[in-house]
Amino acid sequence: MLLLRRVEVAGKTRLPKGQPVLVVANHFNGFVDPLVIATALGRLPRFIAKADLSRIPVGGFLLRRAGVVFVHRQVDRGGPVGNDDAFRECHQALVERDIVAIFPEGTTHDRSRMDPIKTGAARIAVGARAAGATGMVILPVGLTFPDKVALRSSALVQIGTPIELDDEVAAGVGTDDQDAVVRLTAAIDQGLRDVSPDFPDIETALALEQAARVALSDDDHPEPSLTERYALARRLGRTTDEHQAIVRREIGRYTTMLTGLRLTDADVIHPTSPRRLLRSGIGIGILVAILGSLVAATAIVNVWPALLVALVSLLVKAPVSKGTARSIVGLVAFPTAWITAGVLGADGFLPVTLLVLTAAAGALAAIWLVERAMALTHMLLRWQAQRERIGTVAWAEAVRADVVTAVWTAVSVDAS
């Protein structure tokens, strides 16, 4: 997808087929979360969203057309609210074996762990079965974003173990059975925490994630998958306080060493070679030769929405809101610019369509070229730094070995 460089999906084989599915997901990145879920599932579920979104000009209309079900939250109304119609809409979709998706925390946030989840997901699942949905499955989906602030970052989608409703709640039990609803909510909560970031604070989250990345990286495998990285970070988060303190101390030492020596972990384990640098330079040159004219021809169309997205990103301060703001502005501004250029620059349906598609292709090509040019520039700077500081790498290697030892010692002791 355009908003992210990479979406890594783990556990996709766990997605049930031919059954009604209620997706439950953590909500750490605003409007980006449903886009990532839809990308991972390969289809657009019926998302449940707060009713306030329905009042956004144009946006509310588009969300309704996309099948979003709007519900009122008690926190917005200051007391009990009625969502019977919305729940019936969800029940009917599940009876028809559709996929419905809900963020059971009830709100999006920047914290390092999930908020306690509400009972709405459990009530919808039990209510759908009572309405005739057979084989009801609740599917936990964990979303992890290594960097919510950066443009074109990456995301990890981890699909957890499906929760068969009939295994958790006896047939004939309805939403009026509070104990059953609470038990099912607890099962959903645990299933979702098993695949979601769940650290006591942001400092611990960052330290354990960095330590996991270092422990998994080597010269043959310089960039571990997000699945491996965050699975190990969660394992570290379940170790004793004593072992976590050791890991945090060692990764702190290593980070301090790298900062002081002006090195990165990649400089230590996977230095840039002149051959890699030359190969990347040639690749960029070929791309510029092939795509440069397309980018130049469409630049005047694409530069304005790009600047608008950049401006919005600068104005929005909260990390959880940046992705939402960029997504909404980009999804509106770029197609508007392409369609406007097509209408003003050509006559007839086919010429207008071709011009719109050309402008869109130019935007994609520009993103591709800019990213690779930035990567080449970074590689060149790192190569220069490595040449100047070659004698200091051994110091960093010794401290790095302590990090790796601390990580694997912690998880091995915990496993035993």
Please describe the biggest sheet, giving its number of strands, its sense, and whether it closes into a barrel. 8 strands, mixed
CATH class of the largest domain: Alpha Beta
Distance between the termini: 41 Å
- Classify the fold: give the CATH topology of the largest domain: Glycerol-3-phosphate (1)-acyltransferase
By helix and strand content, what is the structural category?
alpha/beta
User: Could you tell me the mean pLDDT?
Assistant: 89
CATH architecture of the largest domain: 3-Layer(aba) Sandwich
Annotation, overall tally of beta strands: 8
Strand content: 5-15%
CATH superfamily of the largest domain: Glycerol-3-phosphate (1)-acyltransferase
Can you put this structure into words, describing what you see?
The chain is an alpha/beta fold and about 425 residues long. It folds into three domains: about 5-195, Glycerol-3-phosphate (1)-acyltransferase; about 200-265, no CATH class; about 275-390, no CATH class. Helices cover about 60% and strands about 10% of the residues. The chain contains 15 helices and eight strands. The chain has helices at about 30-40, 60-65, 75, 85-95, 120-130, 165-170, 180-195, 200-215, 225-235, 240-260, 265-270, 275-315, 320-345, 350-390, 395-415; strands spanning about 5-10, 20-25, 45-50, 70, 100, 135-145, 155-160, 165. Strands 1, 2, 3, 4, 5, 6, 7 and 8 form an eight-stranded mixed sheet that branches. The longest helix has about 40 residues, at about 275-315. It is flat.
